[in-house]
Protein 1
Amino acid sequence: MDPMTLKPLARRLSLALVLASPMILPSVAVADDASLTREMIVNDPAAPKSGATNADVTIVAYLDYNCPYCKKSAPELERLAKSDPKLKVVYKDWPILTEASVYGAKLALAAKYQGKYDEVHKALMAIPGRKIPAERMLAAVTASGVDMARLEADAKAHADEITALLKRNDAQAKGLGLQGTPVYLVGPLFVAAALDYGQFKEAVAEARKRAGKS
């Protein structure tokens, strides 16, 4: 999904208010599945987060480490999170493109247990291209400065938790009807495209406007 094919930001924003009700999923979702509620999509305690703890807007980002458009937007989203003191970003690792995508997601989520998710996420998103093999991902993570011995131990000790989180992310994405990555839930807005810093900022401003916080 190349944003250059859709010029005005308004054409990239589905203003269907996907987070406007307790259950935001279509009828194909299992209504009594706790992992598919709005609360778990936005506030899953196991999902990595960055930014403000008292945020007035949350961006939920569904991403794959082999998605070139995710990689294009990653530094733009990071820049926004650092510049906006009232913004929170929730990362939803959704590895759907290759088996190596799953491997990369598990590395990143294992790094979370030593407080290094952001570093590993950034390292993986910085690898250019697509269809990145697992070996190259491992090399990038090793170079990021994380404690690899601990990462390996955490990956084993928390394997069930990591797998469960990836399954929840997948169930949520499918319940929302997502077709690919990246997808950003910016407050009540649904953005299925790669955005630059200015476009992210505009989407956040629109979310605040709709919430009466602008």
Note: Residues 99 and 132 are 10 Å apart (CA to CA).
Protein 2
Amino acid sequence: MLQKSDDIKSDHILLYQTHSPFARKALVFALECGLSDRIDVIHQETSPTHRNDRVFNANPLGKVPVLILPDGMTLFDSMVICDYLDRLHRGRKLIPTKGRKRWHTLRLHALAQGMCDAGVLYRWETNRRPVGLRYPVLAEGQKTKLIETFDYLETELDPKTPVTIGHIALATGLDWIAFRDLVDFRTGRPALAKWYEDFCARPSMAQTQFSGQTHDHPTP
């Protein structure tokens, strides 16, 4: 997945999943900060119906991403991992520490996070849950959240703003929605579509493209 320099030793481990927008957010963040050489990325299959003991041993919630630090401490939740990574590099911080820039960044991150949460629930009710157990009203409610978010971003997203964790969360979230073919966000939203295409052209996104399918039960 990532090309590492032979003369730099990785001292962190990222428990990852190649089809998780939350895990990809953490990895794209690391790449944008120039920290990929310090991280070994290990894919782990998880789902609410598929127990992964290695992940549970690192995170009692059984979810990725999980960052294992050099001293063995584990960090989980993508935002916590990104906050940690932002303190390791000497470049421009991707999580502003003060002023309106911080609140704009955190608000965009919250919007992107909520968008992904709605997308996950929508996918459960339209694809993953057994047909007889699906709840169409809930699916429609989650779809509405997605559409309202896309419409908001079409008018509020500033393409000139320097990259922050909010933009990374948004790009990886939108790309996951496209990867799962959930709800169209391009049609009728030219500004959002262009921003998305431009961001996906960044090396950090090109190196971390989504792949694979969710396994709700252990493979034989």
Note: Helices lie at 21-32, 53-58, 78-86, 99-128, 136-156, 165-179, 190-200, 203-206.
Protein 3
Amino acid sequence: MIRVLLAEDQGMMRGALALLLGLEADIEVVAQVGRGDEVVDTALRARPDVALLDIEMPGRSGLETAADLRARLPGCAVLILTTFGRPGYLRRAMEAGARGFLVKDGPVEELADAVRRVLRGDLVIDPALAAAALSTGPSPLTDRERDVLAAAADGSTIADIAARLHLSESTVRNYLSSSIGKTGTRNRIEAARLARHNGWL
């Protein structure tokens, strides 16, 4: 029996996934959580074979959680299931140690098959997304540029960003200027929009 942990912040979606996977003769959903910061502790208690993670969850993202699981429970295979099929997300998921990446609009049979395959050690990636990731290429942003650009995305002032990230205002301006240059955009709002669209933030 394949033991699965489900991490999905939308209760109805989580319940539907649990119900559908539970119909498979060889799969048992042993734990469900609605927050990213609950995944690791729950996984350490439930000892799943596969963790099915959404990306955008309160508390901690699925991408951050995937890396935590790889470190704390290396025997658990991670499969990312998301609404957001962004090339940068795929690349970051693989770097975090995920064994699979699927978008939510696929058939449930494909999901059950992916659970079995990642447990066997296969890499399972949505083909269209894999092609998009190859054509988009890696993120040009450094980790710090990404942090500053993400903080700027809501329209915060330079002073607010500097205070929030414990940086000087001139350093924030330099990071934003560099991000705008690397993304080929005209301002920080466009840079943040492009970076978010590509899954770099």
Note: The beta strands are 2-7, 27-33, 50-53, 77-82, 100-103, 124-125.
Protein 4
Amino acid sequence: MKLLRTCLILLLVAGLSGCGYNAIQRQDEAVKASWSEVINQYQRRADLVPNLVATVKGYAQHEEKVFVEVTEARAKVGSIKVDADTVNDAAKLKQFQAAQGELSSALSRLMVVSENYPQLKADGLFQNLQAQLEGTENRVTVARNRYVQAVQAYNTLIRTFPNNLTAKMFGYQVKPNFSVENEQAISTAPKVDFGSAAPAAPASAH
């Protein structure tokens, strides 16, 4: 009896392997790992915001509207609770994406402000923060691309026969991905290089 039970278990394991169970497990873990990296890089960017705003404010105190926009956008990003389950919730993923997009836009406007302040652009601390932000935006893009690819691979896997039967049996469902309207943002890092090597335009009087 014990031998029969062992044989049945072995047959069941072999059957699950043949139906893609192990592959689904691996791909699901790959999606979770890719999502964690996306979160890490976005958090790295958010951590740069306070020092960046403070540095710009030191040279451009009257640009209050831009500072408020960046601060509020960062606060909104921080208010959204994300975890491993977010990858299974289309509404939460969309909310997360929208908040990060707002912060990206606000940071872009902050970068534009700096163009009018040559002394700010020459500030060593600002140059360091600029370099960190540029590097972080590039890492965000790489992490986001890897996540998109991981989700696509997972979704394709669980929708292909006979894996779809195994997925249905164990409750694995198609995961939402970054929306199509954000495709360009997903594949292109925001430009934060101020082009200091280009000919300098006459500074505005302030």
Note: Confidence is low (pLDDT under 50) at residues 3-17, 185-206.
